[in-house]
């Protein structure tokens, strides 16, 4: 038993250098991981994180999705869902996406992901109008 544990640990250490995810980490179910993350998350934004995870589950609709299978294509689909089909207004879609990235970042830190599938995704809110500018009075006008 000790030899098996040592061999698995050696494989983990070696895989860190190559970007390979070991088999027992590849098989982690995303839904179980997300539930555990939500239960142990200690910040005030937990409700938003939980809602973001629920929106992701609605988007993907795969209760057996492995964390290692979350890729940029899936994240692009999730982004499009938040922007166009989720019925969210204002900055909510962007906030959900940012909070969901926290779950993925935790998975990366724990070794379930070797790269963030959101790294190359640009999220811009189509509802945000940059033409509205704040007018600030200078000292002379005051």
- Give the low-confidence spans: none
Category from helices, strands and their pairing:
mainly alpha
SSE pattern: HHHHHH
Query: What's the N-to-C terminus distance?
Result: 77 Å
Largest β sheet strand count, sense and barrel closure: none
- Provide the gyration radius in Å: 20 Å
The proportion of strand residues reads under 5%
- Overall helicity: 55-70%
Principal-axis shape equals: elongated
Quick one: how many beta strands?
0
Question: Averaged pLDDT, please?
Answer: 82
Q: Can you count the helices?
A: 6
Q: TL;DR?
A:
The chain has 142 residues and is an all-alpha fold. The protein contains six helices and no strands.
What is this structure's SSE topology?
Blueprint: H1 2-18, H2 23-26, H3 30-40, H4 46-60, H5 72-85, H6 92-109
Description:
- It is built from six helices and no strands.
- The protein has helices at 2-18, 23-26, 30-40, 46-60, 72-85, 92-109.
- The radius of gyration is 20 Å and the shape is elongated.
